[in-house]
Design goal:
The protein contains 15 helices and two strands. By secondary structure, the chain is mainly alpha-helical. It has three domains: about 120 residues, no CATH class; about 140 residues; about 80 residues, no CATH class. The protein has a two-stranded antiparallel sheet with strand order 1-2. Helix 7 runs parallel beside helix 10, helix 8 packs parallel to helix 12 and helix 14 packs antiparallel against helix 15. Bound molecules: zinc ion. Zinc ion binds next to helix 1.
Length: about 375
């Protein structure tokens, strides 16, 4: 607890000294280094205490990482930021004449990526996120979820207080679901994402660039694995029976939030814009919509039973596409793709209905087909 208080106090004193948040700092550390105790003891899991990178959730029990490598502390970026702001240069006659010198110093420092600064307002940049760590949210999230899976079966024992109720259990269970949502959100930001690398005019290369299609596909595949396929490990029946939370609601809330983001006008427009500007690097809108659609209908390939969480997801997805199809005049490509997708879905449902055996799954598919009755 002392180390945790030290960590927060250091961050707040950083603000008092004039430092702003640096949400890019933690993204400069390769995920595998977050499991390397020697490296962590020397460098910490983030080069800045001014990031929101509270604790190292990537480290696994078998890595035997010490406290030094688990809790954020003042790092090399912070020392440099204080030097930048406060160091006195007696040979430079005025503050104005310090500007080109300091700009040169930043450029020199940037030979080491760990001195990177990114504004907390670069919200489209997946490297610049609150509560994330490491250089790849899919890899980091995979480890983070592994740790959450270790926590859930122990929560009852950890929150047990003799002669008390289940208030702590409720609070910590919500803590786990919130943390899981962070991992999902960190990955969702990759889709239609844009890197923003702040530069002065003396530095070469673009300030804004598209997140490469390979990473966006990796992100979509992660979302399929961890949210389109329902995270059943979260639904511990003993815990839910004690705190009275609703299993379908827990899953549906996360699934709906992700689909709202993946199929928002903002995301679709960003993907279309990226395609227009950087054809080869971009995730083409048509490919993106194809990939997303494939993940939605995996059961139909084998006519297998569609479980309740997947039925909820598919219903929400179809509703979302229907909503979009009514109102996409501003982005004509998205409109064309969505209308074609809806026709394809209708044909696929028609084909699957007579071959699917499970009764509830058949009702569900017929119901969705009914929703698409107006689609050619
Ligand atoms: Zn702060």
């Amino acid at each position: 607890m002392g180390e945790l208080i030290r960590s927060v106090a250091a961050h707040e004193v950083g603000h008092s000294l004039g430092l702003t948040h640096n949400f890019g700092a933690s993204s400069t550390v390769p995920v595998e280094k977050l499991r390397d105790n020697k490296w962590l003891e020397a460098n910490g899991h983030t080069p800045s205490i001014m990031d929101y990178a509270r604790f190292n959730y990537v480290a696994q029990p078998e890595d035997s990482v010490s406290e030094q490598g688990l809790i954020a502390r003042i790092g090399k970026y912070d020392l440099w930021a204080i030097e930048y702001g406060y160091r006195y240069y007696p040979d430079i006659p005025s503050a104005e004449k310090e500007i080109p010198f300091l700009n040169g110093a930043i450029i020199e420092k940037m030979k080491d990526q760990q001195f990177w600064f990114a504004s907390e307002f670069s919200t489209d940049d997946p490297r610049v996120q609150t509560e994330d760590i490491g250089d790849n949210a899919m890899k980091a999230g995979e480890y983070g979820i592994k740790n959450l899976k270790r926590i859930i079966p122990r929560l009852n024992a950890w929150t047990y207080v003799p002669n008390e109720g289940y208030k702590n259990l409720n609070q910590l269970y919500n803590g786990v679901t919130n943390q899981y949502d962070y991992y999902i959100n960190h990955v969702t930001t990759y889709i239609g994402g844009t890197y923003e690398t702040i530069k002065s005019s003396e530095q070469i290369g673009p300030v804004y660039s598209v997140v490469p299609a390979t990473l966006q596909k990796e992100a979509l595949s992660f979302l399929n694995k961890h949210i389109f396929q329902p995270p059943l490990w979260l639904l511990d029946t003993v815990i839910l029976a004690r705190i009275g939370q609703n299993a379908t609601q827990i899953i549906a809330q996360s699934q709906e939030r992700v689909l709202n983001s993946l199929l928002s006008y903002t995301t679709l427009t960003r993907l279309a814009e990226a395609e227009a500007l950087s054809e080869s690097r971009a995730y083409r809108l048509i490919n993106y919509m194809d990939d997303l659609d494939q993940y939605m209908w995996t059961e139909l390939a084998t006519y297998s039973t569609i479980g309740i969480y997947r039925r909820n997801l598919q219903r929400y997805y179809v509703d979302k596409l229907l909503d979009l199809s009514k109102n996409t005049t501003a982005f004509s490509d998205a409109d064309a793709i969505i209308k074609n997708k809806l026709s394809e879905i209708k044909a696929r449902l028609k084909k699957a209905i007579p071959k699917t055996k499970d009764a509830m799954s058949v009702y569900h598919l017929k119901y969705l087909e009914g929703k698409l009755s107006g689609i050619p």
